[in-house]
Amino acid sequence: MDYLKCSAQELEQEYASLKKQYEDEKGKGLSLNMARGKPGKAQLDLSLGMLDVINSSSEFVGADGMDCRNYGILKGIDECRQLFAEILGVEKENVMVGGSSSLNMMFDTISCMMTKPIVEGCKPWYEVENRKFLCPVPGYDRHFGITGYYGFEMIPVPMTEDGPDMDMVEELVASDDSIKGIWCVPKYSNPQGITYSDETVRRFAALKPAAKDFRIMWDNAYCIHDVTDTPDELLNIMDACKEAGNEDMPILFCSTSKITFPGAGVAAMAASENNMKVFTERYNFEVISYDKLNMLRHVKYFGNYQGVLDHMKKHKEVLQPKFEIVLNALETELAPTATAQWTKPNGGYFVSVDVLPGTAKRVVELCKEAGVVLTGAGATYPLGKDPKDSNIRIAPSFPPNSELEQAMEIFCICAKLAACEKLINQ
Ligand SMILES: Cc1ncc(COP(=O)(O)O)c(C=O)c1O
Questions:
Q1: Of 13, 109, 255, 380, which residue is least crowded by CB atoms under 10 Å?
Q2: Is the pTM of this model over 0.90?
Q3: 87 in the same domain as 72
Q4: CA-based nearest residue to 124, from 134, 113, 109
Q5: pLDDT of 218-231, one tens digit each?
Q6: Best mutation site among 44, 97, 142, 394 for ligand 1, i.e. most ligand atoms within 8 A of its Cβ?
Q7: Atom 16 in ligand 1: which residue has the minimum CA distance?
Q8: Which residues, 6 or more positions from 130, have their beta carbon under 8 angstroms from its beta carbon?
Q9: Same domain, 207 and 86
């Protein structure tokens, strides 16, 4: 039933029927969660073998001859840097392996540029009073949290199906030297699952920012996280930037949080020699060395990059049915109403749903009352402000499939109920 073509009376009837279904679901006292993008138990179990590759009789010496049980090697053990070099598509010399969180490395990176100029002669960003950061929307709330924390004005840049609106990005960065960077999740973006097109990557690489210290925060968190048999391909940003003479512009990040264990994996970053010099100087004060035993554990477990890719296929087997549950529910329940749009990603961790404008908060509230927790409406926008009150991020990975089916049923009832309410009251 196309709600937008319904008479007032038809909408009232539909509302009454939905309200009854809603009250029935509410009466079940459910407790379901589609909020955060956490791997489910079956995915965590996939990496259990990693816990057995090191024990008290293991050889703890890495390729560079360093005893991994002791302090040393700030940038991480050689074989782990090599593994991340291949994951990120860069040279090993440009990689630093850190602790267990890439978000932590991103926070440190911004923090570093706040206090030390990344380019000689530029001001540290804390001295730039009207500092600004570009934020593709919808985007990752924790990225916006970092630049919000450091007092940046955050300029939303709409996402297109090819990535951020590059006309807007080019125009803004060329005209305002207080714009210091942009957040990017270039492959299977959070939350839409969009992969930037080759042209978008090339346009990023060819940017001519007014600020000499403009940096692209290239968070490739989902670089090898396919959920279908038709994976997306992302052009290599470092190669493109080198070609365009902009090698210092991108800073790349990733981690094994969604490969092995979130919070207990390994994170890495990569950047040009010039950039890494400034960052490692800071890290020198911050830490003596990161957890090399965990790096060794990861390297021993996977063997090489192909080993990581093989492991990701197992994740795909678990995640693919979950994405299908979500997409089938949306297609069956919401498509006929013509009130919502959503993405059908080939990878990543999320499905991004745009419900009828003006109803996202209401949908999240209705779901909560019926026992389904969703990411807060607005979370995908800087400062939590979605101007259309429309975007909701669905995270299918964590709940068991039977719970996910129930949760999606309730989500669709709530989306329809909120749409009817809105249309009736218009
Ligand atoms: C885009 C993106 N970057 C980073 C992270 C967090 O990564 P880490 O666990 O390495 O800090 C997430 C987690 O959901 C994410 O979606």
A1: 13
A2: yes
A3: yes
A4: 113
A5: 999 999 999 999 99
A6: 142
A7: 190
A8: 153, 178
A9: yes
